[in-house]
Amino acid sequence: MLVALGYALKPYLTGFVGMLDAWNYALLYMGVGVGLSSLQDPTKTQNDISRKVWQSPLKGAVMLWVLAILAFGMILVGLLGSYLSRTSAINQLSMGLFAVGLGMFGLLKTAIEMFEHHRLDKNPPDAGHPAQETDA
Q1: Where are the domains of the chain?
Q2: Mind telling me which residue stretches traverse the membrane in this protein (predicted)?
Q3: Which of 10, 65, 74, 76 is the most exposed place for a label (fewest CB within 10 A)?
């Protein structure tokens, strides 16, 4: 993700020379970074906010819908942009957006597994499991 940030900031440092190429690389590396984040352990949450979201049936379902809309929206816009583009630069930028959508799709898969594992309406809280602590 730091490489993606570097490519995203590069046009600002070079006077916007090669802007579309740099942003294409930023999108590609961002897609790879998001895709690799889907390799995390779905039985653990990163922080209290994440735990509260995945434990709540409503909040978890909303988050899954948001991730699904983002993933499929990026894939759709990337494919349409690639198909309808008249220039090579826009085509490459669209493929970068498609790559981010694929990474988001992998993240959506992990989010579904986290939601199934942590939701309190189907999995009662276990006192020995820190990821399922309840606020009293």
Answers
A1: 2-126
A2: 22-39, 60-84, 90-112
A3: 65
